[in-house]
Amino acid sequence: MHSSKKIVVLGHFGVGKTSLIRRFVTDTFSDNYKVTIGVHITKKLVEIAVDREVSLILWDLEGTDEIESIRDSYLLGTHGLVFVFDVSRPSTFEHLGNDLKIVRNKVPETPLMVVGNKSDLVDKAELKTVLDENELSADFLTSAKTGEFVNELFLKLATLLVGDA
Question: Which UniProt keywords are given for this protein, alphabetically ordered (predicted)?
Answer without folding.
Answer: GTP-binding, Nucleotide-binding
